[in-house]
Amino acid sequence: MVETARDRILRAVCDVLYIDEAELVDGDATDLRDLGLDSVRFVLLMDTLGIEKGSAFQRRLAETLSIAGWVRELTEHCEHV
Fold first, then answer.
1. Which domain holds residue 61?
2. Which of 2, 26, 54, 70 could form a disulfide with 30 if both were Cys (CB 3.0 to 4.6 A apart)?
3. Residues 61, 12: contact at Cβ < 8 Å?
4. How many distinct helices (H) and strands (E) make up the chain?
5. What is the CATH number of the domain that holds 36?
6. How many structural domains comprise the chain?
C-alpha cells in the first residue's frame, strides 16, 4: 500500500502533537494551533517531514497551519512527499 502525502502528514502531526485523528474537529481543515502546535513542535514537524529549516517552503507551511493546507502545498511544490 502506497502512503499518500496526507497519510504522511497526518502520521507526523499525530506523533508530534500526541493526538488521534479523531481530535481533528474540523477534519483536515483543523487549525493545528488549536491542537497544541507551537514553534517548537512546528520545527519538529518540519524535521519529520524533511522540510529544510528556514526555507521559503517552510515559511509557506507556517502560513497554512492545517493538514489540508500542508497537503496542498506539499503536493504542489514537492516531489519527495
1. 5-77
2. 26
3. no
4. 4, 0
5. 1.10.1200
6. 1
Closest-CA residue to 68 (of 27, 38, 37) = 27
Cell numbers at 22, concatenated:
479523531
Amino acid at 55: S
Tens digits of residue pLDDT in 39-61: 999 999 999 999 999 998 899 99
Q: What is the pLDDT of residues 60-78, one digit of tens each?
A: 999 999 999 999 988 887 6
Give the DSSP H or E segment for 42: helix 39-49
Name the residue among 26, 17, 10, 9 with its Cα closest to residue 74.
Answer: 9
How many C-beta atoms surround the C-beta of residue 63 within 10 A?
8
Please calculate the CA angle 41-42-47 and round it to the nearest 5 degrees: 95
